[in-house]
Amino acid sequence: MVRFLTGWLKDVVNNAYSRPYVHKIRDKPVFSLIDAIRKVKEENKNPIIAEYKRASPSGFSADRDPIEYAKEMERSGAVGISVLTEDKFFSGSYDYLFIISHTVKIPVLMKDFVVTERQIDNAYNLGADSILLIVRILTERELESLILYARSYRLEPLVEIFDENELEMALNAGAKIIGVNSRDLLTFAIDQERVKRVLRKIPSNVIRVAESGITSKEQIEELKKYGADAFLIGSSLMKEPSKIKELI
Length: 248
Ligand SMILES: O=P(O)(O)OC[C@@H](O)[C@@H](O)c1c[nH]c2ccccc12
Description:
Layout: H1 7-17, H2 33-42, E1 48-52, H3 66-75, E2 80-84, H4 94-101, E3 108-111, H5 117-126, E4 130-134, H6 140-151, E5 158-161, H7 164-172, E6 177-181, H8 192-199, E7 207-211, H9 217-225, E8 230-233, H10 235-239, H11 244-247
Parallel strand pairs: 1-2, 1-8, 2-3, 3-4, 4-5, 5-6, 6-7, 7-8
Bound molecules: indole-3-glycerol phosphate.
């Protein structure tokens, strides 16, 4: 059983349980997101995971060709691409994941509300190199077992947390790459101060990702002071893809 959920989070998780199994056979290698982040850092560039997101329940919407977008992000030096596959609230699809993972040669992350092993089977078969696991919607046991299940495919999951309690859960479950979301999933409010506070509590052997609400180079430089190794950016790049050059 998942934790007690309310509002749209309850609906999005219910929907996740009934996602179909995708009949595809993976035909590409797995690229490590962690290795890619380390490499970009060594080159003294900012590791940016660019997100392909067409809509979100917070009101965002953008129409952009997935192939053009992914190619431009790769050409500009993005460390990876995150692709929304959630269909009901984010207008994502498994097709976008398949197209993008077969267009670029950088790691691709499946961004969804993962609660079942079948969703991880789909991620692997469609060509993803990592998946997101959101601590807020999982029990400790589910988190642990989904991490191990993803690893059985050599997909190292990005574990998303909100606060110190969730950080403890992520660390107990053995997460190697943790993302702190500045956006509260229920209220959509952005809080970068919370992100800074939580980031500095993450041990430095874990890869630390700052997620959401990032629009400027100054913000990135500030987040780096608190230990951020990488940055997950959606809305501002979907609106203006060329902006990635100044952020890197
Ligand atoms: O568009 P932004 O503010 O740059 O945020 C990107 C990403 O962090 C955000 O889409 C996100 C973070 N965690 C999520 C969980 C589910 C869906 C979406 C998300």
